[in-house]
Amino acid sequence: MRCDVIIITVLVVVMLVSTEAIPWKNRRKAKAFWRKFLCTKRFNWPWIRDESAYKVDRIAQMRNLIGSCKADVGTCPVGSCSTRPHLQIFNCPDDGYICPETEIRTADCGTYGVREYKHVTQCKCCTDNGINITGTVVDSTTEKPLSYMKIKISNGPRTDTDLEGVFNTTIRSTLQSVVIRVIDRRKEYIEAVKIVDIPEGFRGPVNVKLVMIKKSTPVQIDATVEETLSLSDDPTNQSAGNAFIVIDPNSFTDRNGNQYNGIVSASVTFIDSNKDSETVIPGRFLTPVGESLENLISDGIVSFDFKDINGNNLNVKPIKFNVRENMRLWDLDRNTGLWEPSKVFPNRRKRQVTLTEEFLIKVSNGRWYNIDKIPKAPRCYIKVRIFNEISHEEIIESVTSSFKPEIIAYTAQNRRLRLYAGFTRSPSKTCYEVRCPAVSNTDKALAGFINMTSSETVSIGGFYLPSVYNLKPKPIDQYSDVIRTELQRVQYTIAPNGMDIFLNFISGENGIFFTNREKCESATADQPALHFLKPEPPSYEPDETEICTARIAFKDSWNFYNYTLELDRLPTVIGISVWKKETQSFYHNATTTLELSRVEGEDFVFACMEYRCSQDSKDDSLSETTVYVDIDIPNITYSYNDSLWNGTIVSRNHSVPAFYCYGRCTGPLCHKQLENLNGISIDGSFTAPYITNSGPDFFDSEPNTCKDKLGSESFAYEFRCHSNEENVHERGEGETWQPM
Fold it and tell me: What's the confidence (pLDDT) of residue 543?
């Protein structure tokens, strides 16, 4: 009998005996204790973990290798699993994800020669180390990266942005949504709050951009008299904006509670929610009502900051908000990213002459407040069907892709209504809730845009990379006559960007906007729905790929050059070229080796990296090439002696990277995000220019003089590297080390 089975059996017996000895009323707690103990990650002995015990059949997936040459590279279904199958009798939660086992195969691609690719043979369970989130924090006006900002993630760790405004952290893969807060320690910027949705089973990385708004230039007001400020970009202009505040005399106190009677610097930072970009909006325009979430339609978002003449914060008594009729004040819950009704003090008045409402609200410095109302328009529902762009077969349910719409509507008064929806793997069974006002005049209906995105992890030349791309709406002349009639009724139009559908939100018993959710969900394929085309997964490389070369420097920060002199074989470097043609993504992989300068008197390390040349196009259908660089860094294993509690000396081994390299990296694959997918760790990236020449940085062809250039000449990209060997030697007497 296997040792692990014996030990599990013993544990079960011990658990049952100890539980039965406990009084009946406490047995539930005892069982919960045992389950928590056995399922915890601390109870993670090697004989329990068995990733090979879980097997799932592969899914066939044909992929373009180059040109029209295809091969079945295969893929795996998305889902969780357990790497500790012996503990499933305790109903432990899954701690792994379904991942592929691969082997190298070749395909005869005719004039393109024989091409290697990774073929998925079957699927197993891999240890789940979480999902990597990388974000960039920038100024809303200048797009300048903001360093040393504090990052708080709901149900996740805390971190800071680096000098490039970038942060990188890992969250649990079971999370479907996280709230990211960005806090400025210097208090120059107002806190940013962003909700990020994560597709089920998406292995990452998740790349986000967070925009921070600097506090507006303050205006001077007198604390001893009544002051009126408009909620707008020009607070001294009382006729600006749709709302204003009135501050009564003697309303300010210092931090000790003493009344302040001097000049107040009042900063009123306003966001026009109908004009400003979605990236600057804090949170989401949703508010919890009972068990559901209601959409909000906004007149603007505002934040206040009151200081005395010495720059010290001032507190203010409740102030009067005058807003449009039926509008209300809401506070941003920074932990959820949702809006909660503001506490209203007695004094509410409605002014029938001006059709405004007046509320007495207590405000705090640096908090966001929203002027909103819940729209009264009736709910309606719309279905989106997804089709394969090549075969035109409908995707009823996907085991690899998640789909999500973006829906924005506008009222007849040009007020923006944001409608939120989650990810789905079953598009044909999903209906999305929108709003359809009951109007006889279509000019007074809501009108807006709908687009769809797809998220999945795909195999690219042996690497498993995240892929998020927009789906293409089907042209109206490709619909059936029945559906086309309904689309014309709502003025179906494809926007110039080729991704958004514009239409009027007008409900009907038989679609395209259904008045009943159940009827929408049960609608058949011949009934009205929006149709989108899903493109093929990204290609390994198209047949028109042109190769250029970039010279990359590995500058010596600490003993790196001397370390490379001792190596029998210099490490390899992988370059992943990524670019787009319209909505289709393409990848090209190249491998090279670090080299030592061949120029006499110059000691430096470099690499000549091949990449796909950036190709300019007059219609912007081709994007620049972003090249991601992965350095194959070997490990150093060192041995050391350790003393146990009883004085026994034991020998231990420990591995560390032989060296570290640091470089600038921007893009969705940056900052060691791929380690959980395939062992690839992105160390840096650069964007290749459209125009290249004969060096010394970028070369416009594969055969070139890259290796003969001087260290004093410019490079396409630079790493700063330092050896870790010296640190290993200094660990103590009696320790030894060897490279792996």
Answer: 54
- Verify that 562 and 530 share a domain, yes or no: no
> What is the number of alpha carbons within 13 Å of residue 228 lying toward its C-beta?
8
- Residue 431 falls within a domain, yes or no? yes
Q: Quick check: 458 pLDDT over 80?
A: no
Q: Which of 214, 235, 264 is the last residue of a domain?
A: 214
Residues 564 and 700 in one domain: yes
Residues 249 and 196 in one domain: no
What whole-number distance in Å separates Cα of residue 473 and Cα of residue 476? 9
Whether residue 513 contacts residue 490, with contact meaning beta carbons closer than 8 Å, is answered with yes
Residue 66 lies in domain: 3-123
Question: For 587-619, what is each residue's pLDDT tens digit?
Answer: 787 889 999 987 777 889 999 998 988 877 665
pTM: 0.74
- Report the domain count for the chain: 5
Same domain, 647 and 634: yes
Asked whether residue 661 is domain-assigned, the answer is yes
Query: Are residues 268 and 408 part of one domain?
Result: no
Q: What is the C-alpha end-to-end distance of the chain, expressed in Å?
A: 36
The pLDDT-based confidence of 738 (bands split at 50, 70, 90) is very low
Phi, psi dihedrals of residue 29, rounded to the nearest 5°:
-65, -40
The string of DSSP letters for 520-556 reads HHT--TTS--EEEEEPPPPBS--TT--EEEEEEEEEE
Per-residue HEC secondary structure of 312-324 comes to CECEECCEEEEEE
pLDDT at 214: 95
- 91 sits in the region (left: phi over 0; alpha: psi -120 to 50; else beta) called left
42-64: buried (b, 16+ CB within 10 Å) or exposed (e) per residue? eeeeeebbebeebebebeebebb
